[in-house]
């Protein structure tokens, strides 16, 4: 196989997988069949394109091949399963079923994979497989589980969709905001696992996962261009991903934001992310909705990434944005991050008092103890800081983060 053909197959798989699976699911009403036939169609492309050449419209070729393979399978099974006979009668010009607010097969596929009837683990796995096109081994590796376990998880999720009669459609307008929030939560979880991998056996940063999350969020943005939280999540991912090259040192240690080499940041991603933030700020100023969680997090990241030096950070603006975020998401983690911003304005003693009030809620969260350790360190309380570092190290799973915390602890005086 020539490089050109291999690159074409890779590109078409990346760009068309979700569209092919979604189209087959709509036509035949069977997510498992759609997945299998899409896979067989791409396998046929690997076999035939090196010999016959790349077709003029590769995506249409794969879709047509997958459809023919689905029909062939259903014909073989029709004698055993009369239910499938109806599927054979479906034609491309048949009247479309009601599709909800937005008519796009890929969006319907995404909402099906992220249905609230499924567990969050199942939603993530199914979304990566059906929408992202990742293989079962790739998904299993990403989340540090056995391939057989991940395959069973995906199979059970497809079975639940079939058994529960979960419809293949975009929710109607009254239900759309809540369901979009669920989709974004899945994508953000995928991104965060890549941004700061939780497993001790994993690479500390999984760029393939962050890239996949960004790609799928771009798809949602394309399909829901006027949703502010979709734009906010995409901006947040872009501004975070822009710093990836500077986040881990050559020795494998996590590098704090204020110590990163800003020249190594991806400034094209930063410009795109900041443009999205400004777009949403202008929209809110025109009265087009209120900023949600992802928009506010993106705005906070924009403050950090828009200055050439960490010393130029406008901490008063960061704190004001965290105040807004606390009104939208009054969680202990938001309060913890707000206290970090507070320490830059009011000093570590004021911030520590706020952090200590979160002890009950966040005692099992490594970042809580790491934050306490840094504040105690700034106050000269070395023994207390060492104990806090010990607790943070015990709870942290990311290898780069453990290396960073260990070095910080080692710098404390006797």
From TrEMBL:
Keyword match Transcription regulation: yes
UniProt keyword Transcription regulation, yes or no: yes
Renumbered residue ranges of the record's region Disordered: 82-101
Domain DUF6596: 179-279
Residues annotated as domain RNA polymerase sigma-70 region: 19-80
Pfam families per UniProt: DUF6596, Sigma70_r2, Sigma70_r4_2
Keywords: Sigma factor, Transcription, Transcription regulation
Superkingdom of this protein's organism: Bacteria
The RNA polymerase sigma factor 70 region 4 type domain, residue ranges: 110-160
InterPro entries noted in UniProt: DUF6596, RNA_pol_sigma-70_dom, RNA_pol_sigma70_r2, RNA_pol_sigma70_r4_t2, RNA_pol_sigma_r2, RNA_pol_sigma_r3/r4-like, TPR-like_helical_dom_sf, WH-like_DNA-bd_sf
Entry similarity comment: Belongs to the sigma-70 factor family. ECF subfamily.
PANTHER family registered for this protein in UniProt: BLL6612 PROTEIN, BLL6612 PROTEIN-RELATED
NCBIfam families per UniProt: sigma70-ECF
Protein name: Sigma factor-like helix-turn-helix DNA-binding protein
Organism from which the protein derives: Leifsonella bigeumensis
Lineage: Bacteria, Bacillati, Actinomycetota, Actinomycetes, Micrococcales
């Amino acid at each position: 196989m020539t490089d050109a053909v291999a690159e074409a197959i890779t590109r078409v798989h990346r760009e068309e997988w979700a569209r092919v699976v979604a189209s087959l699911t709509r036509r035949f009403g069977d997510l498992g069949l759609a997945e299998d036939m899409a896979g067989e169609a791409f396998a046929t492309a690997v076999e035939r394109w090196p010999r016959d050449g790349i077709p003029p419209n590769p995506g249409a070729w794969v879709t047509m091949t997958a459809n023919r393979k689905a029909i062939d399978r259903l014909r073989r099974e029709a004698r055993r399963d009369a239910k499938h006979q109806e599927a054979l009668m479906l034609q491309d010009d048949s009247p479309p079923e009601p599709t909800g607010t937005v008519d796009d097969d890929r969006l319907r596929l995404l909402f099906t994979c992220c249905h609230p009837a499924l567990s969050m683990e199942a939603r993530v796995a199914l979304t990566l497989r059906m929408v992202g096109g990742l293989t079962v081994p790739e998904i299993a590796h990403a989340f540090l589980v056995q391939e057989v376990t991940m395959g069973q998880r995906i199979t059970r999720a497809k079975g639940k969709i079939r058994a529960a009669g979960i419809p293949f459609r975009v929710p109607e307008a009254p239900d759309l905001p809540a369901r979009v929030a669920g989709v974004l939560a899945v994508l953000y979880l995928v991104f965060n696992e890549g941004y700061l991998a939780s497993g001790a056996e994993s690479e500390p940063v999984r760029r393939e996962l962050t890239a996949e999350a960004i790609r799928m969020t771009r798809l949602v943005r394309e399909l829901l261009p006027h949703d502010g939280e979709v734009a906010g999540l995409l901006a947040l991912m872009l501004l975070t991903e822009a710093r990836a090259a500077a986040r881990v040192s050559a020795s494998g240690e996590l590098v704090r934001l204020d110590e990163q080499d800003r020249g190594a940041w991806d400034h094209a991603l930063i410009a795109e992310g900041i443009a999205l933030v400004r777009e949403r700020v202008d929209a809110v100023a025109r009265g087009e909705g209120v900023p949600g969680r992802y928009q506010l997090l993106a705005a906070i990241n924009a403050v950090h990434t828009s200055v050439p030096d960490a010393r130029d950070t406008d901490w008063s603006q960061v704190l004001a944005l965290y105040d807004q975020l606390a009104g939208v998401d009054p969680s202990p983690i938001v309060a913890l991050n707000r206290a970090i911003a507070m320490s830059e304005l009011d000093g570590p003693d004021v911030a520590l008092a706020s952090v200590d009030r979160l002890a009950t809620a966040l005692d099992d969260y490594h970042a809580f103890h790491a934050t306490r350790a840094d504040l105690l360190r700034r106050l000269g309380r070395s023994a207390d800081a060492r104990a806090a570092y010990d607790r943070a190290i015990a709870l942290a799973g990311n290898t780069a983060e453990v290396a960073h915390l260990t070095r910080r602890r080692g710098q404390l005086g006797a």
